[in-house]
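REQUEST ID: PR-0412
SUBMITTED BY: lab tech R.K.
PRIORITY: routine
TASK: structure prediction, single protein chain
INPUT:
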Amino acid sequence: MRIRIVDAFTDRPFAGNPAGVLLLDTDTFPDADRLQRIAAEVNLSETAFAHPLPEGAEADWALRWFTPATEVKMCGHATLATAHVLRTTGAATGTVRFATLSGVLSTTADDSGTITLDFPASQLTPLDVAQGAAGAAADALGVRILSVHHTTPYIDHLFVEVADETTVRTLSPDLAALAQTGHRGCIVTAAAEDPARGYDFVSRVFAPAVGIDEDPVTGSAHTALAPFWSARLGRTELTGFQASARGGLVRTALRGDRTLLTGTAVTVIDGELLA
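STATUS: complete
OUTPUT:
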């Protein structure tokens, strides 16, 4: 079985967010336990598995995503990585529809290799900073919090706004405490200090509850970041920078209840899974 490692939301190797991608030549998935064991062996934030669907189906490919610890309902960077592999191998071109746990998601690749994901926009519900999971997250982050929201229905993250970009970049959270909040992860964000640098907001994403201490560049988080910052900044098209050690840019555009996420990807490893 062929396996590729693809760096997503970057135009150069060893940056962005790496994802495992396995294109299956079967018409069904192996059992979930096998997929989970492969994802644990790959040990990246997500590994994507896809197989083609028959003509006339609701989508072109079926797609699932696994962290080293669990299956997830939505993953942006591994979807981008899968679309990149389909394009670069000639398995699919243009727009590709994927049947997923988040419904039918589509990706569109242009001739340059830039890929746009069409995802549902997340809903944000305000929470009391001092109570429950929001209070626990605030304590775990150890910084002053401006607001906390819960993101639904697909990514189940706490969404935390802090004072400035420097606070985001220098965070050193208590990961064990974050894992006990009862949510998949925590998005921390602030406005860019200098939009002339090419981005409008910054973020970091921590998800120790699902085996990811810090996710390098999280496409799905931008389904919440885009509507939040578009409302604040008064523009429907923005660029976010995820300020992890690897870093990456995500261009976002709101289209009603959908969020378009645009980026590029690079294949860095192409090999065979022997087991």
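NOTES: The mean pLDDT is 96.
REVIEWED BY: pending
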